[in-house]
Prior knowledge:
Number of domains: 1
Shape: globular
Number of helices: 1
Distance between the termini: 12 Å
Helix content: 10-25%
Radius of gyration: 13 Å
Strand content: 15-25%
Largest sheet: 2 strands, antiparallel
Amino acid sequence: MGWVYATSACFGCGRQFCYNPRRVPSIRPAADMPPEPVCQECVNLANPRRIANGLEPITPFPDAYDPCPEAEL
């Protein structure tokens, strides 16, 4: 059995990062656009603002930035 990472630019900061494509937090920039992945650093920066605005913080899955088993794809 193998493992898979997805790699792309973070929607928030533009830096390249690796993630589990089925578990990574994402944002849909517009209703007709696909979800875009967000890195852990941007989640950490966004959460205080979300809480201050009365929103729930983003809580990534524990394995969101780990490889996923290839059988899950």
